[in-house]
Amino acid sequence: GDALPQRILEYREIQKLRSTYVDALPAARAKRTGRVHTCYHQTGAITGRLSSSEPNLQNIPVRTELGRRIRAAFVPRNDDELLIVADYSQIELRVLAHFSEDEQLIGAFREDQDIHAYVAAQINGVPLAEVTPEMRGRAKAVNFGIVYGQTAFGLAQATGMSRGEAQHFIDEYFARYPRIAGFIRQCVETAKREGCVRTILGRRRPLPEINSRNNAARSQAERLAVNTVIQGSAADLIKTAMIRLHARIRDERLPLRMLLQVHDELVCEAPGERADELAATVAEVMRTAMTLKVPIRVDVATGRNWLEAK
After folding, report:
1. Right CATH for 93-228 from 3.30.465.10, 1.10.150.20, 3.40.50.2300, 3.40.50.360
2. Distance of CA 78 to the CA centre of its chain
3. What one-character-per-residue DSSP string does 6-23 give?
4. Least CB-packed of 74, 97, 201, 290 within 10 Å?
5. pLDDT per 10-residue tile (average), the chain, 310 residues
6. Longest dimension (CA), the chain
7. Every domain of the chain and the residues it spans
8. What is the number of helices (H) and of strands (E) in the chain?
9. Which run of H or of E encompasses 194?
């Protein structure tokens, strides 16, 4: 019964992967180097994140098993080199903990807890050991949803809860983490007063619609006020790390090349025999690029291709 619709969806996915990546990426290789060279735009995204084009290498699939396999096509220049992939773990939630100064959230990160399981345990009033995957999934949706100003309707759609349940969950979340609600209010008030918000390093984002009479436009601007401070500050962090890593490579003449930045992740290449040592250097530079009120965690791995190192 379900076989045909399933096959159609699979076909569509394969077709999309083929046209967007399998056929397009080899065609994008530069004749001189035999490699794909993307363009990065410092002012491409209004929050301050880098954007990438010609081809966009920040949207290589990660959500599905089949899509992820595209990453296996990304390899270092030489056979005796390895890729190093380092990414910030839950950086936006850490930035949220830093700005909101919420003691519970800060405590959870300092103890290196699984933050989604931790929030699930608190909201459901159960010990950590009794948190089910479903509870964790809901908490994860709320954790990330809060950063993007998600409504009860949006959360219900994301998790399959009823709108009433979703609203209860959000109310419970803010009751348990009052400092987060305070931080959100503060972002909106700053935007209303100054017409803009600022990231951790002072990047401004104007929000002209923040005092609009149009409800939808105003709500959107309120969400963007919070999102810009969080996402823009995470962008400031990785850019600072990239500048420092570049300086370190230059000053110490390290045989390490930065290849890609995918928002919270850096992909580099290095000689195989020094890959572990240089991976530790990349992680250390990323970890120490800024000091937040919570520890910054970087997950790093090496591999012969991007899939293997992820």
Report:
1. 1.10.150.20
2. 29
3. HHHHHHHHHHHHIIIIIT
4. 201
5. 88 96 96 97 93 97 94 97 98 97 96 95 95 94 87 91 93 94 97 98 98 97 96 98 99 99 98 99 99 98 98
6. 64
7. 1-73, 93-228
8. 12, 8
9. helix 178-194
